[in-house]
From TrEMBL, chain A:
<feature type="domain" description="ChsH2 C-terminal OB-fold">
    <location>
        <begin position="68"/>
        <end position="133"/>
    </location>
</feature>
<feature type="domain" description="ChsH2 rubredoxin-like zinc ribbon">
    <location>
        <begin position="35"/>
        <end position="61"/>
    </location>
</feature>
<dbReference type="Pfam" id="PF12172">
    <property type="entry name" value="zf-ChsH2"/>
</dbReference>
<dbReference type="InterPro" id="IPR052513">
    <property type="entry name" value="Thioester_dehydratase-like"/>
</dbReference>
<dbReference type="Pfam" id="PF01796">
    <property type="entry name" value="OB_ChsH2_C"/>
</dbReference>
<dbReference type="InterPro" id="IPR002878">
    <property type="entry name" value="ChsH2_C"/>
</dbReference>
<dbReference type="InterPro" id="IPR012340">
    <property type="entry name" value="NA-bd_OB-fold"/>
</dbReference>
<dbReference type="InterPro" id="IPR022002">
    <property type="entry name" value="ChsH2_Znr"/>
</dbReference>
<protein>
    <recommendedName>
        <fullName>DUF35 domain-containing protein</fullName>
    </recommendedName>
</protein>
From TrEMBL, chain B:
<feature type="domain" description="ChsH2 C-terminal OB-fold">
    <location>
        <begin position="69"/>
        <end position="131"/>
    </location>
</feature>
<dbReference type="Pfam" id="PF01796">
    <property type="entry name" value="OB_ChsH2_C"/>
</dbReference>
<dbReference type="InterPro" id="IPR012340">
    <property type="entry name" value="NA-bd_OB-fold"/>
</dbReference>
<dbReference type="InterPro" id="IPR052513">
    <property type="entry name" value="Thioester_dehydratase-like"/>
</dbReference>
<protein>
    <recommendedName>
        <fullName>ChsH2 C-terminal OB-fold domain-containing protein</fullName>
    </recommendedName>
</protein>
<dbReference type="InterPro" id="IPR002878">
    <property type="entry name" value="ChsH2_C"/>
</dbReference>
Length: 166, 149
């Protein structure tokens, strides 16, 4: 191609996919509780590991997680990252922090936002609690929690975050 | 856990994003050719002609830089009838997806055959390209193929 044509070389492309998502029984149960402001995990009857959000089975034992475990909205930061690059269509202005949130009594973590603290002060093991949207805005979504914010409790011992084989 | 199938949560999801991509020096020529109603294939040192064009020979790995015109007629190498086109299909009446070996090419390319009945189609039948009058420098500049008997 000659140089005068170079700009044409870039073509606008579009990825578009429409589909129907079916939550499945474990996620349906979980999201129905989330709509009421409750976080309920499921435990494996064999290894006792508590999964939140639950997927309905224990990946280690390969059996259904039949025990419901009500959890609080408190936990700690298991891991985090500072996002500096804006994602097109994402309304959150960088820099912001995404963290793997480990709720108390849970054995796995999930991704959520951390706010209400200077980024430089965020650390693994920091105690946090959910900041909920107003009740009238609650839907079947973890976005009912706006973000997690630090609470005035001592950090937890990071070694306890390791997956405990019980 | 105790949710029956009827009470499972469902939601429509739509994943969509735009991006800009470069077609590169070889494929750019091919797309520009389509807008001029020309189908270009890639010719290897061993005189094998790939259509759709390729940047590299899949067998010898040589860079393919020579482009030659192929088609616009060809033969049906394989086909599959679409009884009920869905919204995302470019043709909204029953049509066929087909592998078409264009005249002068050694490989077949995937496109659509329209304006025909299912019973008209057979492997080996001749087809020819129908061009779009509003070219966009994309494969859609060939609207579809029709039977050429």
């Amino acid at each position: 191609m000659s140089n005068d044509q170079a700009p044409k070389d870039y073509r606008e492309s579009l990825i578009h996919l429409e589909y129907q998502y079916t939550a499945g029984s474990a996620t349906t149960t979980f999201l129905n509780q989330v709509k009421e402001g409750r976080l309920v995990g499921q435990a494996c009857p064999k290894c006792q590991a508590v999964y939140v959000p639950p997927r309905g089975s224990c990946p280690r034992d390969g059996i259904a997680t039949t025990i419901e475990v009500p959890l609080t909205d408190k936990g700690c930061i298991e891991s985090f990252t500072v996002v500096h690059i804006p994602i097109p269509g994402n309304p959150i202005v960088p820099p912001y922090v995404c963290a793997m949130v480990r709720l108390d009594k849970a054995n796995i973590s999930f991704l959520h936002l951390i706010q209400g603290v200077e980024i430089d002060n965020i650390r693994i093991g920091m105690r946090i609690q959910a900041v909920w949207k107003p009740k009238e805005e609650w839907t079947h979504s973890l976005e009912n929690i706006k973000w997690f914010a630090p609470i005035d409790e001592p950090d937890i011992d990071v070694s306890t975050l390791r997956f405990q084989a019980s | 856990m105790s949710e029956t199938k009827a009470t499972l949560l469902k939601a429509p999801f739509e994943l969509s994003y735009k991006y800009k991509r470069s077609s590169g020096p070889i494929m750019s020529q091919v797309f520009e050719g389509l807008a001029k109603k020309k189908i270009l294939g890639s010719k290897s040192k061993a005189n094998k002609v790939y259509a759709p064009a390729a940047e590299y020979d899949p067998h010898t790995r040589e860079a393919l830089t020579e482009l030659i015109e192929v088609g616009p007629g060809g033969i049906i190498e394989s086909w599959s009838w679409v009884h009920q086109p869905s919204n995302h299909h470019l043709i909204q009446t029953p049509f066929a997806f087909a592998l078409i070996k264009l005249d002068g090419a050694d490989t077949a390319m995937l496109h659509m055959i329209s304006d025909c009945e299912k019973s008209d189609l057979a492997i080996g039948n001749r087809v020819k390209a129908v061009w779009s009058e509003t070219p966009t420098e994309s494969i859609a500049d060939i609207q579809h193929f029709i039977l050429d008997i």
